[in-house]
Design goal:
Shape: flat
Helix content: under 10%
Structural class: mainly beta
Largest sheet: 11 strands, mixed
Strand content: 35-45%
Order of helices and strands: HEEEEEEEEEEEEEEEEEEEEEE
Length: about 210
């Protein structure tokens, strides 16, 4: 309980009013440091076996949604990390968002995004690669940005520094390792490459 007192969880109503709480159904919170803030916007999504982990001075925000979010794991325990998920987000089954252990990284998912199953998004490699010449770190983390109305299919990996343009579709089992920056497009493959432009998508089945 002491860690909870050093950090804050808020419900945010549709008018932007905050109410501090210590429990959100379907989410397990784990605070590894202090001064972190988690904001969950109402109406609250149907969270199912989700977990949020924060270090020092972290910020996590999940927008309002009528959809189910199953097995979301937000590992934002690199100090000063920021993870923002927009409104109307849905997750079929299992997504891991990782900013740890590096500091000062951000990851943003826009509004109205649909995710499949077994997705991993990493803003960091997790371990250092060090130059023998001057001992500099060669693989520093980079922010990740996913635009509004993106459909990320199952088994996708989104790596550090990736940018996905609005209204994009990322095909099943793709690996995004850079800029998918043409809106209204389909990307697929390892690494993900542009496959088709001038498209949009809908949540309804064909």
């Amino acid at each position: 309980m002491f860690k909870f007192l050093q950090n804050k969880i808020y419900k945010i109503d549709k008018n932007g009013n905050k109410k501090r709480v210590f429990f959100i159904r379907g989410i397990h919170f784990s605070f590894k440091g202090k001064n972190s803030i988690v904001e969950i916007h109402e109406p609250i999504a149907k969270f199912d076996r989700c977990r949020i982990v924060c270090g020092d001075n972290c910020f996590v925000s999940i927008g309002s949604s009528p959809y189910r979010i199953k097995k979301l794991r937000v590992l934002a325990n690199g100090d000063n990390s920021s993870v923002k998920i927009g409104k109307n987000f849905s997750l079929k089954n299992s997504c891991e968002i990782i900013t740890r252990p590096e500091k000062n990284l951000s990851l943003k998912i826009g509004d109205d995004c649909q995710f499949g199953s077994k997705i991993i998004i990493r803003a960091t490699d997790g371990h250092k690669i060090i130059s023998l010449e001057d001992e500099t770190v060669l693989n520093k983390g980079k922010d990740v940005v996913i635009g509004n109305h993106c459909w990320v299919a199952s088994d996708v990996r989104i790596l550090k520094g990736s940018i996905i343009a609005p209204n994009s579709v990322i095909g099943m089992s793709s690996v995004v390792a850079g800029k998918c920056d043409t809106p209204n497009s389909v990307y697929a493959g390892n690494p993900a490459k542009l496959k088709k432009t001038n498209i949009t998508w809908d949540r309804e089945c064909p």
